[in-house]
Design a protein that fits this description.
This protein folds into 2 domains: 197 residues, Up-down Bundle (Multidrug efflux transporter AcrB transmembrane fold); 44 residues, no CATH class. It is mainly alpha-helical. It contains 11 helices and no strands.
């Protein structure tokens, strides 16, 4: 529908250049939000993928490593989408877009396997040394995301579910399928970048008193600065505003004589009774705000 409206506006502008047409509404904002989320998801995924591939080539110097590292994460994402469809039927596009940030955690699983195979003489030894740490680390991380299911926000629930399924699928792939493609290579010379990383990680930072003192001071400074941060309470800032819709909204607000703003509220509940009780509470709060002059009027129809 929004596409049809845009086409009609463009056609009218071409036929009558002096005529300007503006429109605004919730459905239009939803459509443009969905389009922007889709573009952002593709863009962030492509950029992240390019950076990851370059990093893999610099560290491992084997093109085969790209396949071995990316496959578990891709499988985890496909597994998450499939399980989300089975358990919920649909999932928020914003949750999937934000879920691309989980790619870094998922890739670390396969990176551990490929990096550690330089120190073992058999795949069996590799599994014996990494199986328990990987499972324990995965369970704790997955549990943290599962905790989002207990929030009241559908968006946070979808994000937690998608992230948990992604990490679960990645872990299963790394433990079951990835070892089939690995070989022990303790006699293979490491790449230069990997040697530099290991040299830095082997430095005894805990024995350097100056670094410990600097860390304590930095912690104190950060603790003080954290109390100064401000929080944006305007929920509309969470929404992407298409420039032409923002312009139309500003024009509508300018025509409003008393400078009031219309806000739509929706009460939800797991049952009709709970939703009705939530509505009654909202109406009581609106009545109190109206008596204080903060709300000009409201309607529950």
């Amino acid at each position: 529908m929004v596409g049809i409206v845009d086409a009609a506006v463009d056609s009218l502008a071409a036929e009558f250049p002096t005529v300007e047409v503006h429109y605004f509404g919730g459905p239009a904002m939803s459509v443009y939000n969905a389009r922007q989320i889709k573009r952002d998801t593709y863009a962030t995924s492509i950029v992240a993928l390019v950076i990851i591939i370059l990093f893999i080539l610099c560290v491992f110097k084997r093109r085969r490593s790209i396949f071995l590292i990316l496959c578990p994460a891709i499988y985890g994402a496909v597994f998450a989408l499939a399980m989300s469809w089975l358990t919920r039927g649909s999932i928020s596009g914003i949750a999937v877009g934000a879920g691309t940030a989980i790619m870094g955690i998922a890739l670390s699983y396969s990176i551990h396997f490929l990096a550690h195979q330089n120190y073992v003489r058999s795949v069996t030894q590799l599994l014996e040394e990494l199986c328990s740490p990987l499972i324990i680390g995965s369970v704790t991380t997955i549990g943290a995301f599962v905790g989002l299911l207990f929030t009241s926000s559908r968006l946070l629930q979808d994000f937690g579910l998608f992230a948990a399924y992604t990490l679960l699928g990645t872990m299963v792939f790394c433990l079951v399928f990835l070892p089939q493609f690995l070989v022990a290579q303790s006699d293979v010379r490491e790449g230069k970048v990997l040697r530099i990383i290991e040299k830095i990680s082997s430095y005894p930072f805990d024995r350097n008193k100056w670094q410990i003192a600097a860390l304590v001071i930095l912690t104190a400074v950060c603790g003080y600065m954290s109390t100064k941060v401000g929080f944006d309470s305007d929920m509309m800032d969470l929404t992407y505003w298409e420039p032409k819709l923002k312009e139309a909204e500003a024009m509508l607000a300018a025509q409003d004589r008393d400078s009031t703003k219309t806000v739509m509220l929706v009460n939800v509940g797991v049952s009709d009774d709970l939703a009705y009780n939530a509505l009654r509470g909202t109406l009581q709060e609106l009545e109190a705000l109206k008596s204080e002059g903060l709300v000009s009027d409201y309607s529950d129809g």
